[in-house]
Design goal:
Radius of gyration: 34 Å
Oligomer: single chain
Protein name: Lipoprotein
Number of helices: 3
Number of domains: 1
Helix content: 10-25%
Structural class: alpha+beta
Mean pLDDT: 83
Low-confidence stretches: none
């Protein structure tokens, strides 16, 4: 049996050290410990809360409900849904049997349309409904006061139209002030 030469032994050892150094050193990046930098990013949903007007014993009563956003369409849709599943016991809705079909905002043409000394421009919201039968005065008040409560600065009045079935019918242009006698005791309706 031949013994390896001393030269080969030194060279093999050097090769082994180089290989170990390369394996441990990698590509020149020094390994670090794992560091905790907090919770992973998560999309969280925080709803916006709005006030809708529902009915208790023939009177308007406010209820706070969550909405995805405070756009007019979301607010009106939420009012119709809240009537089907009231957020508080004893609340009902005059909107059962009706559906929100569409909403469209139109601009008042100027101060001549409204007795506004500042001459500011405002909007009229046209709410279009579908459904059988006649919408009661309380139903008109629910829509008008809900919109005015949540969009007081920009929406000056609410015009309501029942589109179908049957012949389309205008249910008039309203402000919440005209329904003040329908407020529950201790409830102050928006203008």
């Amino acid at each position: 049996m031949r013994r390896p030469s001393a030269r080969f032994a030194r060279g093999g050892f050097a090769c082994l050290v180089t290989t170990v150094a390369l394996v441990l050193g990698g590509c020149g990046i020094t390994p670090t410990e794992v560091r905790d930098l907090g919770r992973p990013p998560v999309i969280s949903y925080s709803p916006t809360w709005v006030t809708v007007y529902l009915v208790r014993q023939g009177r308007l009563e406010p209820a706070r409900v969550p909405v995805v956003s405070d756009s007019v369409d979301n607010i009106v849709d939420t009012l119709f849904r809240a009537g089907k599943q009231p957020p508080k016991p004893g609340l009902t809705s005059e909107l059962i049997g009706f559906n929100h079909y569409d909403s469209k905002t139109t601009r008042y043409s100027g101060a001549s349309q409204r007795n506004d000394p500042a001459g500011e421009m405002g909007y009229r919201l046209n709410v279009v409904l579908t459904g059988e039968g006649r919408l009661s005065r309380l139903g008109l008040a629910q829509i008008t006061c809900t919109v005015r409560q949540n969009k007081q600065e920009s929406i000056w009045s609410v015009e309501i139209t029942r589109l179908f079935p049957g012949t389309p019918e205008s249910l008039g242009e309203h402000t919440c002030f005209e329904f003040r006698n329908l407020a529950a005791r201790g409830v102050r309706l928006p203008p």
